[in-house]
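User: Can you predict the 3D structure for this chain?
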Amino acid sequence: NNIFVALPQSRNDAPVYSTDGGDTWTMSSSFTSGIFFDVIYVADDNQFVAVGRTTPSTSSEGIVMTSADGVTWVARASTIIKSVPTWNSVTYGHEGGYIAISTDRLTIDTNSPKAMRSTDGRTWQDANLKSGASDPFVSIAFGNGIYYALRTTTTADLNDQEDDQMVVAVAESSDWISLSDLDPPEYGMPATFATG
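Assistant: Here is the predicted structure, written as structure tokens:
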């Protein structure tokens, strides 16, 4: 839609938008304060979806905002959105809709991570993250009909823990499985989380 947006990682700042390819930027006048870690644009729904947290404190709640024009933002409220301190990453996968995953990289909270799903980016429900997941999830991406969710641990080397550290879900399913449960050529270990 020829609009660029950038959202703040300080709740004292406002989202900004650009209509000239990024040469000049203007602050949004309608938004809810928060600390945002991810924002996507979904052409299918003609909207931006941003996720993050309300404050840097341990009393933070997750936050989701949507915008049709990058100028006016609407905070979405639901029990699942507020159930974790932070929503760290969000992606969109056509048939399966939106999925956001949680972590708490600011306060290092030990709450169990969660995933939530939405068909429109505005109303969200629990996505039933794989049982036993304990470490915070840091990124999610969609490709070839599969959602890939990557979590972190205190171990520096993830190369020996690929199967344990990534879980996947087929777009039309709410079931999450370990990466090793998919057989080649159904998946490829992504070097970075980028889809196009």
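The two ends are 16 Å apart (CA to CA). Confidence is low (pLDDT under 50) at residues 105-109, 154-164, 184-196.
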